Amino acid sequence: MRRRHFLFATGSALSASRILGANDRVHVGLIGCGGRGRYVAGFMRQVPNVHFSAVCDVWREKRLAAKQWAGPDTAEFSDFRKLLEHKPLDAVLVATPDHWHAIPTIFACQAGKDVYVEKPLAHNVREGRAMVEAARRYKRIVQVGTQHRSAPHYAEVAQIVQSGGIGEVRFVRVWNYSNMLPNGIGHADDEAVPDGVDWDMYLGPAPMVPYNRLRIGPTYRWFWDYAGGTITDFGVHRFDTVNQVMNAKAPLTVSATGGRYVLKDDGQMPDLLQVTWEFPGWVLSYEACNFNSHGTGGRTPGMKYYHAKGADDRPHGEAYYGTKGTLMCDRLGYEIYPGSEGVQRVYKNSTDATALHARNFIECVRSRKRPNADVELGHWGTNIAHLGNIAYKTRRKLVWDSVKEDFEGAAEASALLSRKARKPWDIIG
User: What value, to the nearest 5°, has the Cα angle with vertex 85 and ends 101 and 59?
Assistant: First the structure.
């Protein structure tokens, strides 16, 4: 399949971006005013001389709440294109559902704005590549919200593994476990669009369907039209970390199995998914389970574990299995378990790095340096998740050509690298 590129003509001229000094005020626009957007925006606003000059959301209630948070001089919009025309803006924070990551990012780059875009980078592989091309073409800073890249303890993990501290690592395991029993995301009938919600704009490039409250808000992640389930929501963070730690970029092959076995709700994603990728010289295994939160054991007294609720569960993490020892980590720390003489038992607590990640973005807006989680790194990490979902849907082992960004001899799988978007948003091939 020959890759179709994004059509970079949108009918509006590229606006000139300001050259910012170290002490100049950075004006940021928030696109997507839900919980995550406001959370990251809060950290950005802690950086001196950062002001949120505009907010945008298709949901009036969220938009007005964000405006109240940002201040009385903040403009508010329901259409991100109008926000991008707001004169003071230097950058935008895109914290929309996944299906609305690509187009606002690309339009922002064209408008001369830098972008912090939440993970996963894009709804599909072709969208992600178009985002990389837009960032490079318009020389914009694009930071992906994979905050592990700004975590000091993950930099230590990468140094330990790459220096041979636990020997040769030939197997890496990643897991995301949660217990959504008994009701999952529940059930909801289609209904009239509530006052204050622009449903057509919310759907955007996704197919037109009747309004359903489960398709908007946090539960959007369980519908293929807008997201990719646990593997794109939680897994992308870890895949980006695996790339960092293993100094990797893309797999050679992928296969997957799973299904929706337990949850009896309206969600579409598998509640159990197992994916295996072959990289040059090593193998990555991933597990997503939504009806049990144990994940794995091996708790160390005094350690904190991400989202752990019980006495023994370890619901999220990565494990690097070396010939001399095993290193387990999550966003709150890491542990080394010796497997041979010369390897020391080590454990270290840390904290979530979202605040550091937000600060890094603002610093790069000023300095023009590449951010810690540059858009291309985010594309590589997100692709690992997309390939897993495609292997699950096609039920076959797939060979991946990372240069062409296409599968070898698998037309059915290649067709899932993009989708036909709804007009007028059908601008990415």
Answer: 50
Global pTM?
Answer: 0.95
What number of other Cβ atoms are within 10 A of residue 341's Cβ? Answer: 6
What is the spatial distance between Cα 9 and Cα 6, in angstroms, rounded to a whole number?
9
First and final CA of the chain: distance in angstroms?
11
Q: How far apart are CA 284 and CA 174, in angstroms?
A: 8
Counting DSSP H helices and E strands in the chain, the numbers are: 12, 17
Domain assignment present for residue 136? The answer is no
396 is a domain residue: no
Q: Is residue 189 part of a domain?
A: yes
Place of tokens 């020997």: 167
DSSP reduced 3-state for 91: strand
For the stretch 81-91, pLDDT in tens is 999 999 999 99
Mode of pairing for the β-strands spanning 169-179 and 50-56: unpaired
- Domain that residue 262 falls in: 149-351
Q: What is the reported pLDDT for 21?
A: 67
Whether residue 1 is predicted with pLDDT greater than 60 in this model: the reply is no
Characterize 203-230 residue by residue with b for buried, 16 or more Cβ atoms within 10 angstroms of its Cβ, and e for exposed: bbbbeeeebeebbbeebbbbbebbbbbb
The 10 Å Cβ neighbour count of residue 265 is 18
Task: Please write the tens of the pLDDT for every residue from 340-374.
Answer: 888 999 999 999 999 999 999 999 999 999 999 99
